[in-house]
Fold Ribosomal RNA small subunit methyltransferase E.
Amino acid sequence: MTAPVFLADPALLAEAADAVDATARGDGATVLLEGPEGRHAVSVRRLRTGEEVVLTDGAGTGAYGTVSAVSGKDRLEVAVTSVSREPEPRPRITVVQALPKGDRGELAVETVTETGADAIVPWAASRCVTQWRGERGAKSLAKWRSTAREAGKQSRRLRFPDVAELAGTAEVARLLADAELGVVLHEEASLALATAELPREGGIVVVVGPEGGVSPEELTAFTRAGARTCRLGPSVLRTSTAGTAATALLLGRTGRWN
């Protein structure tokens, strides 16, 4: 089993990288993990001295080492032997996710993150039953971000997806206009995403509509921005799973899963 991943202070990881670079064998680089991450490592994962771990800032840096000391229920030290920096992936894949009902939003964020999407944009589509307003909206966004962070660690990612602020249709249209390829998933589209021409660089933005579908007005706005309508396959997926299926297909076709 691969070593577990924990989120660490970027400043501490930078210091560890400098220490590794300054020594021939990488000796003397120690990172302290405490607080919620340390508690999870010690009390939940029950890590002990000598076990391998990976520390990351969630932005592409990975520090590899072993647990050198454990103290209390929420504190351990990691002896770091190497530090790497993962390049930004190309092409970058952004999933625009219309707000689903209930906890399906967290499910969508979790599986899209585990699959490998680079950014997630919550979208207040006109046919969304769920609405994010005021304190409820702030809590929901925080939950999406927490879900992406935990899913990033679970899937051993060094680079966690950005979860943007809630977007309206006009903002989504601007994202599509700026993308190398903008796609709106639609069951009646004649073009299959599996055969669409894909860019090698830049960004791909995939829009996933709500349970009630993308409205004609929204579809017009998105196609005017340069987006193409594409279908995934012969079956109709739920809004909480369509983004994951599209991300997997794109990662395979662009070579990022090679």
User: Anything to note?
Assistant: The domain at 5-85 is CATH 2.40.240.20 (Ribosomal Protein L25; Chain P).
